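User: Please predict the structure of the protein below. I'd like the answer in structure-token form so I can feed it into my own downstream comparison script.

Assistant: Understood. Taking the following sequence of 52 residues as input:
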Amino acid sequence: MKLPKLYLETSVWNFYYADDAPEKKETTIRFFDKIKAGAYEIFISDIVLEPR
């Protein structure tokens, strides 16, 4: 079975730490748990990995 391919735009990562929006944070954490479990093949921009 082919995994769904997803491109994660940079703002998606911000919601993982969104203490001021707990519903978005919870949904995002569940989404990343699915990614860790292998439910999706993800792609990101090189800028996400660029050191600041």
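That's the full token string. Residues 18 and 30 are 14 Å apart (CA to CA).
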